[in-house]
Amino acid sequence: MSGARPHSGVPFADPATLPGAADDDRFMREALAAAREAAAHADVPIGAVVVRDGRVVARAHNRREVDADPTAHAELLALREAAAALGRWRLTDTALYVTVEPCTMCAGAAVLARVALVVFAAPDERAGAVCSAAELLDARWTNHRPRWRVHAAARPDAERLLTDFFATQRGPGDETPTG
Ligand code: ZN
């Protein structure tokens, strides 16, 4: 899996204002911290933050179980929170950090929100929609294609949260989560 990939569409954000790879560790740590909060209500520990101008403007964790909401994935909640905080739905100057590769819904939301950059730590080979099961962020039919990269250094931490969770919460063979 490659790191940064060139954006193939129209420029939409000043790259200088977006986080660089050197910032990934700091922001992914925030996403991992958010992920840990999901365990308090027995939700799969996946976390996300939205970054603008070097600052976290939104952070969320998966709340599917506690809210009984199939769409309450960390990324979707973080994007909604960021839009509310900024007072606009276009998030063209933001980056989305998430501990697990986004699913089709969340990758689609990143496209619709016009997020400039998506960074994730652990791939989801079963349902990941960035580079595993589908390549939604690079789809030619969308009018916006976020840049994306993998922060592989945080993959062990992101995956350990999941394996620890499933070891204590559920038996083996249950459904695995998607980001
Ligand atoms: Zn999702």
Bound molecules: zinc ion
Number of strands: 5
Largest sheet: 5 strands, mixed
Q: Structural class from helices and strands?
A: alpha/beta
CA gyration radius, whole angstroms: 15 Å
User: How much strand content do the residues show?
Assistant: 15-25%
Mean pLDDT: 91
Total of helices = 5
N→C terminal distance:
18 Å
Biggest sheet strand line-up: 2-1-3-4-5
The run of helices and strands is HEEHHEHEEH
Unreliable stretches covering 5 or more consecutive residues: 1-11
Query: Helical content, roughly?
Result: 25-40%
Give the overall form. globular
Structure write-up:
A 5-stranded mixed β-sheet has the order 2-1-3-4-5. With 179 residues, it is α/β, with parallel strands linked by helices. 31% of the residues lie in helices and 17% in strands. A hairpin with a 2-residue loop joins strand 1 and strand 2. It has helices at residues 24-37, 64-67, 74-86, 104-112, 155-169, and strands at 47-52, 55-61, 94-100, 117-122, 147-150. Residues 1-11 have low confidence and may be disordered. The chain has 5 helices and 5 strands, in the order H-E-E-H-H-E-H-E-E-H. The structure holds zinc ion.
Give a quick summary of the entry.
The chain has 179 residues and is α/β, with parallel strands linked by helices. 31% of the residues lie in helices and 17% in strands. The protein has 5 helices and 5 strands; from the N terminus they run αββααβαββα.
